[in-house]
């Protein structure tokens, strides 16, 4: 999917920052898994979990089974 957003709407945000913010929001709303969010953001699972902490978002809403599935992938 390609998405075009005008610079006026996003200001100085980079493409990578936009992908990260979108991934965090979708994960927070439980629309995608933590692994899918990391892929959307273009970063490793470990880095995404770190970014969640930096943005004061909880990683605790994942079940043990979900975490195991994500780590297997």
List the keywords:
elongated, mainly alpha, single chain, 73 residues
Outline of this structure?
The chain has 73 residues and is an all-alpha fold.
Strand proportion, as a percent range, falls in under 5%
Would you list the SSEs in sequence order as H and E? HHHHH
State the shape: elongated
Helix content: 55-70%
Mean pLDDT: 84
Given the helix and strand composition, which structural class is it? mainly alpha
- Regions with pLDDT < 50 over 5+ consecutive residues? none
Largest sheet: none
Quote the distance from N terminus to C terminus.
22 Å
Rg, rounded, reads: 13 Å
How many distinct domains?
1
Number-wise, the strands total: 0
| Separate helix tally | 5
Name the assembly state.
single chain
Task: Give your account of this protein's structure.
There is one protein chain. This protein is 62% helix and 0% strand. With 73 residues, it is mostly helical. The protein has one domain. Helix 2 runs antiparallel to helix 3 and helix 3 crosses helix 4. The two termini are 22 Å apart. The mean pLDDT is 84.
Question: How are the SSEs placed, and which strands pair?
Answer:
Blueprint: H1 7-10, H2 15-28, H3 34-41, H4 45-54, H5 64-72
Helix pairs in contact: 2-3, 3-4
């Amino acid at each position: 999917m390609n998405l075009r957003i005008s610079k006026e709407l996003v200001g100085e945000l980079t493409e990578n920052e936009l992908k990260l913010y979108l991934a965090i929001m979708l994960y927070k709303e439980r629309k995608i898994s933590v692994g899918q969010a990391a892929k959307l953001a273009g970063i490793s699972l470990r880095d995404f979990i770190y970014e969640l902490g930096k943005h004061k978002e909880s990683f605790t809403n994942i079940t043990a089974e979900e975490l195991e599935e994500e780590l297997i992938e």
